[in-house]
Amino acid sequence: MAQSIRTQNYPVFEKGTFQSHPDLFNRFEQNAPDHLQSKYERLWQSLPRYEETITWPLVSGPGFCGATHPGADTVFVDIMVGINSYVYNSDCLYINPARRIFAISDPPGITTGSRRLFERLDGYLRTASDDLDAYFNRLNRETRPEEGATLSLVHVPEDRPGIAQVIIAGDTFLLHGNASRGTIRIIRGCQDFIGTPYATFESQEIRCEPGDFFLIASDGILSMVHADPLRKLENALRPYINGDPEDMVRRILVDCNAYYRETIFDRTFSRFGGNDNVSLLLVAPEKLEESTSAASVILGGYIEERG
């Protein structure tokens, strides 16, 4: 069956965002010396040019949906502080419908290493016939420690109905939920990053039921609990479960990066969520379809001029 993969881009900052929330400026203006006051004022006046021009992509197909966001607060602070003139997103998604393999990687720092990691993995999958653990451990052996990254992966074997394989390396989250029951739980894995010498990774088999889904998320997802660090991530995500992968992913990404107000001691600051790159990849095994295309999708892992 032919498989339709769609990509849609959404703005990091909607039209009118900065006019609607002028108090975003206060956290830079307060207690700043005169020469910085004038600099921030000029920057503030220029902010509308970034509305609707910096975007984040969402890709979807039968049984899966993924999106990656550079982090609204990260982009906003970089503009205001003038650290650099680019937008970066180190997170990267890998979608291989033919092999039914879905993964997210999140390396530390500003790098495109996660994209290179998935390009290597994609090459293995095209040319070799080893099992999943062999691919994963080969990737680990051939990744230098300085290129280390997290990597969480879901494989839904076509020849084993009702079974999914998962592998987790590092602190990228992997959650298993059921849309019919409204449940979700974190699956624990190995804390070593890909690129850790002598580490060995083993897949876990998960039995799937009707309504089950898997959600892979980079650690930027913790923006969901910024207002209450003691709140469990599973509890924060549970209200979004609705059986519609595209809607669920889009709403979580939007809310991770939404405007909010925060009080620290006696001072109130207005800011965006998303002080880190944040990526999501949702897989609903029973909705996956046979793919006639060998093409895979690698999304994210970029550094580009802000414009």
CATH homologous superfamily identity: PPM-type phosphatase domain
The neighbouring-strand order within the major sheet is 1-2-3-14-11-8-9
The level 1 CATH classification is Alpha Beta
- The overall average pLDDT, rounded, is 90
| Helix fraction bin | 10-25%
Total domain units: 1
Strand content of the residues, in percent? 25-35%
Secondary structure class reads alpha+beta
Mass-distribution shape: globular
Give your account of this protein's structure.
There is one protein chain. The protein is α+β, with helices and mostly antiparallel strands and about 300 residues long. The chain has a single domain (about 5-305), classed as Phosphatase 2c, domain 1, CATH 3.60.40.10. The chain has helices at about 15-20, 25-30, 35-45, 70-80, 115-125, 130-140, 235, 245-255; strands at about 5-10, 55-60, 65-70, 85-95, 100-105, 150-155, 165-170, 175-180, 185, 205, 210-215, 260-265, 265-270, 280-285, 295-305. The strands form 3 sheets. It has a 7-stranded antiparallel beta sheet with strand order 1-2-3-14-11-8-9. A 6-stranded antiparallel beta sheet has the order 10-7-6-5-4-15, covered by helices on one side. Strands 12-13 form a two-stranded antiparallel sheet. The mean pLDDT is about 90.
Which SSEs are present, and which pair or pack?
Blueprint: E1 6-11, H1 17-20, H2 26-29, H3 34-46, E2 55-61, E3 64-69, H4 72-81, E4 86-96, E5 101-106, H5 113-127, H6 132-141, E6 150-155, E7 163-169, E8 173-178, E9 183-186, E10 204-207, E11 212-217, H7 233-237, H8 245-256, E12 259-264, E13 267-272, E14 278-283, E15 297-305
Antiparallel strand pairs: 1-2, 2-3, 3-14, 4-5, 4-15, 5-6, 6-7, 7-10, 8-9, 8-11, 11-14, 12-13
